[in-house]
Design a protein that fits this description.
This protein is of the alpha/beta class. Helix content is 54%, strand content 15%. Helix 1 runs antiparallel to helix 4 and helix 2 runs antiparallel to helix 3 (58-83). It is flat. The N and C termini lie far apart (55 Å).
Amino acid sequence: LWQTIAASIAAEILVAPLIIYYFHLFPLLFIISNVLAFLFMGIVLVLGMLVVVFSGISSIASALAAVTTFIAVHFNALVYKLQTFNPTPFHFLSLSVIELLILYCCIAGLVVFLLKKRKNALFLSIASCCILLCLLCTDEWAALHQSRLVVYNINHTAQVELIRGKYYSILHTDTVITQDKKDYTLKPAHTAWHAWQQSPAINNEILSFGKYKVLLLNEDLPYTSRPFPVDYIIINYKSNNINLEQLQHIFSPKLIILAANNSRKTIEKCLDAATMSHIQVHAVSDKGAFILDEF
């Protein structure tokens, strides 16, 4: 048991930085999972060999195969259950390339000091640790002082968020957005910006964002609308006939942003009309997510 725990810790020390860098998580219960894997997989390995040995006797081989399958399936379910006990912050960890390399310098220096008793290696480890802490504090300061408006590029879906500090608020979202789309687009963005905690949604259609005025347009406007100048217009509704000239005449925006919930044909039609009328348009499905920083 101790050999299994020791091997788990030794492997995790070297693998954990890469897991954080690539997958942005740290399995807090890795020791328990590895001990269970050692026990269960040892049994599965023996049973698998017995299945081969008794392959000529179908009744015995079938029974052994059923037991092997039962153990493997329930082991996977148990490991998945253990993942749910991982604290939420441990699913949104982030390291830059420089931070990853400095972390490995810290680990390498500590290992050399413990094995070779070289003070220079200890000093290298301490210096690397101090540099890493400074970089992490810089990341934290930047996250706490950030303020940005984001229109995501999610296939056939409109999602607009306001990120302030380490929290995000939903300004508009489609009810059809699926979990896999959230995991593919929203979760990486929230992880990179250290803003994975959600604050209450904002239902205002006119948003004062620093020195900018932003209009979230969720439906077609009547032709009798009076002029009202804004800096940015975000078109969130689906329509086969988006009148860009009307929007330009009423609101005089610097830029019109087309969310990704319209069809490709409609977006191409809007882009052609914008080129002919010399209207500035940003289609997120064509140019990527639109990000507006307040500062």
